[in-house]
Write the structure tokens for this entry.
Amino acid sequence: MNKPDEVSMESISNVEQTADKYLKEAKVLESQQSNQDSPIQTDWSQTTETSLFKQEQIRFEKIRQQIHQLTERDSLLNTTVAALREDLQASRVLIYRFNNSTSGQVIAESLVSGWTPSWKENLPCLVFGAQQAADYSNQIVTIKDLAQTRLTPYQMQLLEKFQVKASLSLPILLKTNTAQVDSEGVWGLLVIHQCDRPRQWQETDIILVERIIKELSLAIHYTEIVSGREHDALREKTCNKVLEKIRNCSELSTIFKTVTQEVRKLLQADRTVIYQFNSDWSGKVVAESVGSGWVSLLVEQNNDEPDSFLRDTQGGEYVRGQRFSAVEDIYSQDFSSCYVELLEKYQAKAYLIVPIFQGEKLWGLFASYQNSSSRHWHQSEIDLMMQIGNQLAVAVQQAQLLEKIHKHDHELVQSNERETAIVQFSARLVSRLAELAGESTDTNTILNFAASELRQVLKLDRVGVFRFYPDWTGEFIVESVGSNWLKLVGTELAQVRDTYLQETQGGRYVRRETLMVNDIYQEDYNQCHLELLEQWGTKAYAIAPIFQGEKLWGLLGIYQNDRVRHWEVFERAILEQVATQIGVTLQLSAYLVQVRSQEQQLSEVAERERTEREKLQQGALKVLRALEPSFSGDLTVRAPLSDDEIGTIADGYNTTIQTMRELVRQVQLTANRVSQTSDHNTTSVTKLSSEAQQQVERLQLALQELQLMVSSTQAVTANAQKVEQALQEANRTVNSGDLLMERTVDSILEMRETVSETAKKIKRLGEASQKISKVVNLIENFATQTNLLSLNAAIEATRAGEYGKGFAVVADEVRSLAYQSANATTEIERLVDEIQLGIKEVTETMELGITQVVQGSNLVNETRQSLSEIVTVTNQISELVEGISRTTMTQSQQSQSLTQAMTEVSTLAQNTLESSTVISQSFQELLTTSQELQTSVSQFIVD
């Protein structure tokens, strides 16, 4: 192996200086030995001294050159033992390295084939002759013949194991700081065995070996410097690797795995572990790197009892400041037999332990074990373990800090998830409970859902709902329980008689307090209460009251059976929220039950109303069907009577129809009478008109005759002789006129009586029409009241909603009938008004006609009187013929007056004719009106 770059020139110079120093010491030693009187020196002769010295020097230089050509320790040692065995013709040459003061290991061996090898054997130093390493520092141990040497049986057994017949053991001293075993600096032994025979060890051989040991010591020193530098570099590399792993990895398990593997590899140990303390100072191995062929502590610790020493001493000396514990041989320590047995079980023979602190607290231990043999732990190895232990402490602290951060983050996430779950649970609970309360009146269905949901959300073993009885005892009526736990509902355990609750009538729960118990054994419960909870399997529980309105209805309990449990604030909030929600839901359910009961009652009432309404509708339809002909004017129909409201309405309709029937009958009679009277009066008036026409004609004729008489009178003077004939003719004419006048007077009197009678009948007709108007007003009032009743019925039907639709139809039909009645009465009233107006006009005309008839009668009487006078005069003519001449003028004047009177009578007759014509037209109009009234009234059937 070439010299590594890490070794500086200064180090090489120091090694060379040390080597020169040792060579000078060797020369001085040789000089001193040459001057001593010894058996060996006496064997030499002066003549061969120079030759022997040269031979020995050649032997030495040959081996020395081989030593100085090598810088790798194993090669150096193997080359040295091989060269010495060849030079000394020995059976075995080995180098024994002390692990501690009493034992060590064969680290190099050159052996003739056929003999038992000792390489890698861990042997006590006693096998080579001395008890401890220090005993070898000032002596050379030689055994010439094993059979002739007094040794202990143990020594003999060990030597015979390796077929040793003779041996030579010399110490290898290293005066450096790398060996801290003892003050002499014994690093190891160079041992030469002769196995085939006893051997007398020559002084030259011993000197050669001593000189080789000095060279070997220098070379070992050099190789250890190089190895130390390499080891330091490797240690630094390992530390950097561990530090990098700590920085880049937050997983302690990964860090621990890397550290144990790298440190075991660096120390070439059989096992490296990390041990973590629990809170009670027990502990466990959390990481291990172990060589093949050795048991695993990670596996074995699961089958063994924990280490009681560290638990009893609460960390032992490490808590009190011990920085490390380096044990080179477990058998050389004053350990208890139990502890040694435990170490033997774990195959440990030597170990190095350093504490791992987290701040001021002992967190655990970092340990390396040598299982194959005892081992001397160098300071560099101790420093490495302590350095790595400190880095592990940082890693643990960092990991725990990260764990706290992760835990905090996880708690935040859990808190958010929990809050989200709580919100979702609350919304789902409220929604579902509302649905259940609306769908079912079974309280247990609601409670089962709430208990099941709550147990799943809080991950509980049991959720129970306890209901109070009136005497404040109670029973679990609903529960949600895990499959591994005893069910309470339906068993005697569900019945609870708590004297505290009975005496206090609900105790704290009446005050709306929630009870949270983390550990039942930490509470001051009496034995009976504890036994009850133990029967339930409860270790922790919480209870919240359930209020229905203001009354304590029961309790909601949550139970943890598998372990004690610290109840969180949010869990208490959820419990109280669910209890409150259950109470609200129970109250809502009770309200719904009440509402449904009322709804049932309302339904029954509605059914009764519907039946009654249908009955009313059927009665109304029956009444309407019975009254339907009356809509067409048939007033003979009758509505069927009954004992209900429809019967009352039907009776009202019957009364109204009866009244209308009587009124219509009276109207018909009156109209017939008016028609007959009008017809009769029309005939009379027509006759009167005809007679008046004749009277006019006769008056005109009389006037002509009067004019002829005047002419005759005028001719009397001229023809006196014709007076007699004229007088006779005049007498005949006057007599005819008298008869005519008499008939005229009689006709006028008859017409007067007829007109008077007609006036009376028309007056009675007016009075009858006024009665009709009153009846029509009464019918109109009935129609108005009927309309109001129908409106009220429609309003009530509207209030009744769906149940009043049928009655609303009846009300609409009644209102329609009222409207038709009102329209009919309005039409009748209009006709009556027209009749009254016509009667008034006829009455006025009749009164005027009567006046004119009276006047005509007077005129006719006067005319008759005049004619009577004419008759008298005519009768006296004969007697007064003589006085005709005298009276001619008078007669002429009288004739003129008579002519004027006759003209006036003619005018009056003409006026009478015109008046009778007007009366005739009025009676004709009255007849037409009465006929229209008869036509209107004839629509009504009254008989």
About this structure: The chain has four domains: 9-229, 249-400, 440-596, 645-770+832-937.
